[in-house]
């Protein structure tokens, strides 16, 4: 005959349940309803389930002290002040004619950048608001500047004195310092 161990499991479960009940009695948990706590809670009976609540019990031989009712004070809600006139909402871009779809483009006039240091030229263009600056190798070798201060501007497109949108592409033909412009 084979044993399944179910009897041992049932015994362990009974021992655990007995230990829990014994701990509750030793710690002062009572199954008696507590009307005083229900009254102090303003009608809420504070029970867990239907017929019991947690309350301290006096040690054996001593008389339990009556709980002292605690008055519950509620303040009236604070008055909410509302201004007589609400502030006007901020206008939307559609109302003002501003916003990225409605803004007039920023216009800049290009100075003469020929024979100037590429780093200085790029800083000047960015300060003017230009945001599409392209460099090309003026010799046609396809080199790209890694350090702008080592290159100089040979020509620019659009030419000097032209007024362009800041978002228009500005192309600078450059050579390394010490090289001649073609």
**Strand order within the widest sheet?**
4-7-5
CATH architecture assignment of the domain at 107-176: 2-Layer Sandwich
CATH class of the domain at 107-176: Alpha Beta
Main β-sheet, in a few words?
A: 3 strands, mixed
> How much helical structure, as a percent, in the residues?
10-25%
Strand content: 15-25%
Could you characterize the architecture of this molecule?
The structure is a single chain. This protein has 182 residues and is α+β, with helices and mostly antiparallel strands. Among the domains are: 43 residues, no CATH class; 70 residues, Trypsin Inhibitor V, Chain A (2-Layer Sandwich), CATH 3.30.10. The protein is built from four helices and seven strands; from the N terminus they run H-E-H-E-H-E-H-E-E-E-E. A three-stranded mixed beta sheet has the order 4-7-5, with helices on one face. The longest helix has 22 residues. The radius of gyration is 43 Å and the shape is elongated. The termini are far apart. This is PASTA domain-containing protein. InterPro entries: PASTA_dom. It comes from Cellulomonas triticagri.
Structure described in brief:
This protein has 182 residues and is an alpha+beta fold. The protein contains 4 helices and 7 strands; from the N terminus they run αβαβαβαββββ. Residues 104-176 form the PASTA domain.
């Amino acid at each position: 005959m084979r044993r399944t161990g179910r009897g041992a499991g049932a015994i362990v479960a009974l021992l655990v349940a007995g230990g829990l009940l014994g701990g509750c009695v030793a710690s002062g948990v009572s199954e008696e309803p507590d009307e005083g706590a229900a009254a102090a809670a303003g009608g809420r009976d504070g029970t867990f389930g239907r017929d019991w609540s947690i309350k301290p019990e006096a040690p054996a031989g001593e008389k339990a002290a009556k709980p002292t009712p605690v008055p519950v004070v509620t303040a009236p809600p604070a008055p909410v002040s509302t201004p007589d006139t609400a502030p006007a909402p901020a206008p939307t871009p559609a109302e003002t004619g501003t916003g990225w779809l409605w803004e007039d483009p920023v216009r800049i006039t290009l100075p003469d950048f020929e024979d100037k240091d590429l780093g200085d030229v790029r800083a000047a263009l960015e300060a003017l608001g230009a945001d599409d600056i392209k460099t090309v190798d003026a010799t046609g070798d396809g080199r790209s500047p890694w350090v702008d201060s080592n290159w100089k501007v040979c020509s620019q497109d659009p030419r000097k004195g032209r007024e362009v949108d800041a978002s228009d592409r500005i192309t600078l033909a450059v050579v390394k310092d010490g090289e001649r412009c073609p």
